[in-house]
Write a structure and sequence with these properties.
The protein is built from one helix and 61 strands. The termini are close together. The relative contact order is 0.13. By secondary structure, it is mainly beta. A hairpin with a 5-residue loop joins strand 44 and strand 45. The strands form 14 sheets. Strands 1, 4, 5, 56, 59 and 61 form a six-stranded antiparallel β-sheet that branches. It has a six-stranded mixed β-sheet with strand order 2-3-55-60-57-58, with no helix packed on it. Strands 18-19-30-29-20-31 form a six-stranded antiparallel β-sheet.
């Protein structure tokens, strides 16, 4: 039986061999057995990816290095290289230099600290304008600030009034300070301190109000220095009113100020008052019954020295207090390992706890505002799980999604009729899959996260019907690609909507994803020269027209290990100069006067490279002494590592009138391929058994570039009868290739 089906879509991506028996599924019809170095487009076509352009070698190729994005605007973005105790900067697809050398600053992070135990990037970061907040569990939080393109500073974050651990509740364990300001000592009656506490905060609060009486109107004032409590704040008399033989009396205006000195009356003698005296005194604000000390020195387990950063109550000097708390972050307890912004609060995570700053004041973690807890003050929240799993990632949105090793949670208001804040916050469990340390990708309303094993990507999405979040396994049709854990993800919205995933084995995966179109197709990418991908980030291109994937690629060059920063270049689009569009990896592009020698290729020393000259194919060359010699002059050329692309359809289902076409003896005799802006490519029944498409017309010179082709090309298919009859394609030249549809002529024996 003869049939002529059409295959119109490939956007289900590469499918697992376990799916080869499911032609009943709709996605099976647009799936592929193999999709290598090609990107399934949302529209259905499959397109060869652009090559990677060499940018620079990392500072020290012997060390593992990571990339971080810094996006000030859609047209002003940086890529930051984090290596052993340094940060380097990239901008406009090049290295940022100062004085002719790469601009860099010193950082505290050693190479061993940059990679977590599960292989993911150990640093977490969040950006606000020209500032990046950095956290690492071994280091105090830092603030990286851009003052100018070649003027960046990295400073330890000076957090105000917290975060704190829970306040002590054992009244038998007390502390006492030696002074209320300046450099003091703090002494405890138990072993509470260690040498690693230097830099840690101590919170000290008056014990039971310190015996002070509340302020009241028309109270006889005993003299200067008399202290009273008003609205939880402590004041003292600093100035008396008019001299009067009957003494001085407080006024009627209750003190509520939080700094300076204010009168509670006019301080004058009231005529005919029956001998009351002068009404009104001046009150100076002292404190809100608590203060803070930052530890600067360790003396013993029971005593430390410190600097008062918020005036202490007199009562913690004159007597001991059991109302104390220690800072949550220190070399003793460790530091936060997660950070984000949520509801205008800088939010840290550590273990199972979230610490949120004062609203709108990112570096202020005061849990009380002059003694009062409000909706705007800082708050702490525990994200509890049955197995005590720590928090692994944070994904802010309308709700703050939190991934732990044992499940996923949503942080939101307890009651919707009040603003989110202290006393109105809760953590709701949403799923129990568990998460790895790879940071999620946020795409619209969806959060894509890596499951605890590292070998499955799940989508977390709010469901209105259940008023909660549901999850979906995005690898269910392509589980074979997850033979190694995903260690880093980066989402490129333009132009293809692709989530790029670096795996622990060095392979690069892509997921073409568009929820509203029902598209989730995986594709594998093997970098030319057996490049090993170690880090990925996405930043906008300098013109803001697309998103660019930046990579750190480990290569073996001339027998030596090299680590290169590379950026994936755009695919050809109408209007581009085809002679300057490269599909090889770690490539460089030449445009200039006519020459037969191309130099500056030292990063590919000893490598066989694919060459394109003035838009036409050129025989491969081997780089020697950092250069190659051409057989004809070039004014435009691309030189890079060959990067083969390959694809193969699922076994053809069509061709039978008596049920399924699977397992029946069939053969593709001829094939029409519908292409878009393409050159090159070979077709056959499987990779390695293919014949080339014929583009060149008789009038085109052999050393000139034929024009890119859009339309249908037909060829005699080199296959024989078999039970699957799939269609494969491949190529390794330096030309664009986009396959829109396939139209085979299929003969089936019933």
């Amino acid at each position: 039986m003869k049939s002529t089906p059409i295959i119109t879509s490939f956007n289900a991506g590469e499918m697992s061999p376990l799916m080869f028996g499911r032609p009943d599924l709709e996605k099976w019809q647009s799936g592929l057995q193999l999709c290598q170095n090609m990107i399934p487009r949302v529209q259905g076509a499959v397109q060869r990816r652009g090559g990677t352009r060499y940018v620079a070698e990392v500072k020290t190729s012997a060390n593992r290095t990571w990339l971080v994005r810094f996006e000030f605007s859609a047209t002003d973005a940086f890529v930051l290289e984090f290596g052993h105790q340094y940060i380097r900067f990239y901008r406009n697809r090049g290295v940022l230099t100062s004085g002719g050398s790469p601009y860099e600053i010193v950082s505290p992070y050693a190479v061993a600290d940059l990679t977590a135990a599960d292989g993911t990037f150990a640093l977490r970061y969040v950006q606000s304008g020209d500032v990046i907040y950095l956290v690492h569990p071994k280091y105090a939080p830092r603030k990286l600030t851009r003052l100018a393109n070649t003027n960046w500073t990295l400073a330890t974050l000076d957090l105000k009034e917290g975060p704190l651990l829970d306040q002590n509740t054992n009244q038998a364990v007390v502390m006492q300070a030696s002074g209320i300001t300046g450099t003091i000592t703090v002494t405890a009656n138990a072993n509470l301190f260690s040498a690693t506490d230097v830099g840690r905060l101590i919170y000290l609060q008056s014990r039971d109000g310190g015996g002070l009486k509340p302020w009241s109107a028309r109270e006889r004032v005993t003299g200067l220095g008399m202290r009273r409590i008003s609205d939880g704040k402590v004041y003292r008399v600093s100035t008396l009113g008019d001299v009067h033989p009957d003494g001085f009396w407080s006024g009627y205006n209750k003190p509520i100020h939080t700094e300076g000195k204010y009168w509670d009356g006019d301080g004058r003698d009231v005529p005919n008052d029956g001998g009351i005296g002068s009404i009104g005194v001046e009150w100076e604000y002292l404190h809100s019954q608590y203060g803070f000390v930052r530890i600067t020195g360790y003396t013993s387990p029971t005593q430390v020295t410190g600097t008062v950063v918020l005036r202490l109550p007199d009562e913690v000097v004159s007597a001991t207090t059991w109302r104390w708390a220690l800072g949550a972050f220190s070399d003793t307890t460790g530091y936060p390992d997660g950070v984000c912004f949520f509801r205008e609060r800088l939010t840290f995570s550590k273990d199972q706890s979230l610490y949120m700053s004062v609203a709108g004041d990112f570096e202020n973690f005061a849990e009380k505002e002059f003694g009062q807890v409000t909706l705007e003050t800082a708050l702490r929240l525990r994200v509890l799980s049955a197995k005590g799993n720590p928090i692994r990632w944070l994904a802010p949105g309308k709700q703050l999604l939190v991934g732990t090793g044992g499940g996923e949670h949503a942080i939101l208001e307890q009651t919707s009729n009040q603003a989110f804040g202290a006393g109105n916050a809760k953590a709701d469990a949403q799923s129990e899959w568990g998460s790895s340390g790879a940071q999620p990708a946020q795409i619209g309303q969806s959060v894509l996260f890596v499951e605890r094993s590292g070998r499955k990507v799940r989508e977390l999405l709010y469901d209105l019907n259940s008023d909660g979040f549901t999850t979906e396994d995005l690898n269910v049709f392509s589980e074979h690609l997850m033979d190694s854990a995903v260690i880093q993800m980066a989402y490129a919205q333009q132009p293809h909507s692709v989530v790029w995933c670096a795996q622990a084995n060095g392979r690069l995966l892509g997921l073409t994803y568009m929820k509203e179109q029902g598209v989730a197709g995986w594709h594998r990418h093997v970098l030319g020269g057996s490049g090993v991908v170690e880090s990925v980030v996405v930043v906008p291109s300098p013109d803001g027209a697309r998103d660019e994937l930046w990579l750190i690629v480990r290569r073996t060059i001339n027998g030596a290990t090299k680590r290169y920063v590379e950026v994936m270049t755009p695919e050809y689009v109408d209007g581009d100069d085809q002679a300057l569009t490269a599909y090889s990896d770690s490539h460089l592009i030449y445009s200039g006067t006519a020459t037969t020698t191309l130099s500056g290729l030292g990063h590919l020393e000893g490598q066989t490279v694919v060459v394109k000259v003035n838009g036409a194919a050129h025989p491969n060359r081997t780089v020697t002494g950092g250069s190659i010699t051409l057989e004809r002059e070039a004014t435009k050329a691309t030189v890079g590592l060959p990067t083969p692309y390959r694809g193969r359809t699922m076994p053809l289902e069509q061709g039978s009138q008596t049920g399924t076409g699977q397992g029946k003896n069939k053969r593709v005799s001829r094939l029409k391929a519908r292409l878009y802006n393409s050159l090159g490519g070979k077709f056959g029944p499987e990779v390695g058994k293919t014949d080339p498409l014929e583009y060149r017309q008789a009038g085109v010179a052999m050393d000139a570039a034929p024009p890119l082709y859009t339309g249908d090309l037909e060829l005699g298919f080199p296959g024989d009868y078999d039970g699957q009859a799939a269609i494969a394609w491949e190529g390794e030249d330096d030309f664009p290739f986009t396959l829109v549809a396939l139209m085979p002529e299929l003969h089936t024996h019933e």
